[in-house]
Amino acid sequence: MSPFPYRLVATDLDGTLLRADESVSARTRDALTAATAAGAAHIVVTGRAVPWTRHILDDLGYEGLAVCGQGAQVYHAGEHRLLTSLTLDRQLAGLALSKIEAEVGSLAVAASRDGLEGEVLIGPGYRVQEGPLPYVPYEDPTELWAAPLTKLYVQHPTLTDDQLTRVARETVGGLVDVVMAGPGIVEIVPLGLSKATGLSLAARRLGVKAAETIAFGDMPNDIPLFGWAAHGVAMANAHEELKAVADEVTASNEEDGIAVVLERLLQA
């Protein structure tokens, strides 16, 4: 049996590691355990900020590094502390928001505040997915800018996620970055920030290189991740933009797509 060919396994959460009910299957857990026993580190790389990620990591018994907030936060799960955190310039964010609204009309807006306990603020009309993730509604727009933020979330009443992302990038691409992270989740983040920048910081701490990394994902915000890693694996349920740049496509998140690939590599 050949040794496991990668020293780092990077996995997105939603639509990738997690099933629709936010659980991780026993088969996928076992495959990740076997990969780490073979010498690879596992790093979660998610668009979720730490407060919306921590309970999942705790349930997994995960004690390593996690990259959260689209790369803005490197979090040490075992020590429950932030190692790095990059915030969104609120003046630039406000300008970007006004420019996008000048093009497409009013947006529903939410925001993720910085820090281990950073609240997610939900503005009028913003559609929130049902589930256990905590959030705080706001009515006064000044509340949005009252504390440091990692990102904004925007929704439009009629434009699709793809349409809104495209228009926003064309309008404010020189001020901020705009990423599509999931259904109904279009985000405004600091210019130059991506999952790849966050993972590169975490990997450096582990002494691991991009050439030693395999990455799994499902959405366009995983494109920089695939560009950084040696091998990018898209889930069967992935967005077509990600599949177009993937090195391979595996089974869906509901069908243990991560385990399918890791088991093959472990048995090679």
Structural descriptors:
single chain, 268 residues, alpha/beta, 8-stranded mixed β-sheet, 6-stranded mixed β-sheet, 14 strands
Provide the fold topology.
Elements: E1 8-11, H1 26-37, E2 41-45, H2 54-60, E3 65-68, E4 73-76, E5 81-85, H3 90-104, E6 108-113, E7 120-122, E8 136-137, E9 149-155, H4 161-172, E10 176-182, E11 185-190, H5 195-206, E12 213-217, H6 223-228, E13 231-234, H7 240-243, E14 248-249, H8 257-267
Parallel strand pairs: 1-2, 1-12, 2-3, 7-8, 12-13, 13-14
Antiparallel strand pairs: 3-4, 4-5, 6-7, 6-9, 9-11, 10-11
Helix pairs in contact: 1-8, 3-4
Write up this protein.
Helix 1 packs parallel to helix 8 and helix 3 crosses helix 4. The protein has eight helices and 14 strands. The protein is globular, with a radius of gyration of 18 Å. The chain has an eight-stranded mixed beta sheet with strand order 5-4-3-2-1-12-13-14. By secondary structure, it is of the alpha/beta class.
Sum this structure up briefly:
With 268 residues, the protein is an alpha/beta fold.
Query: Uncertain segments of ≥5 residues (pLDDT<50)?
Result: none
In which order are the strands of the major sheet placed? Answer: 5-4-3-2-1-12-13-14
Distance between the termini: 6 Å
Structural category: alpha/beta
What would the average pLDDT be, to the nearest integer? 95
Strand fraction band?
A: 15-25%
Gross geometry: globular
User: In which range does the helix fraction lie?
Assistant: 25-40%
Question: How many strands appear in the DSSP assignment?
Answer: 14
Largest sheet: 8 strands, mixed
Task: Give me the strand/helix succession.
Answer: EHEHEEEHEEEEHEEHEHEHEH
**Number of continuous helical runs:** 8
Give the radius of gyration.
Answer: 18 Å
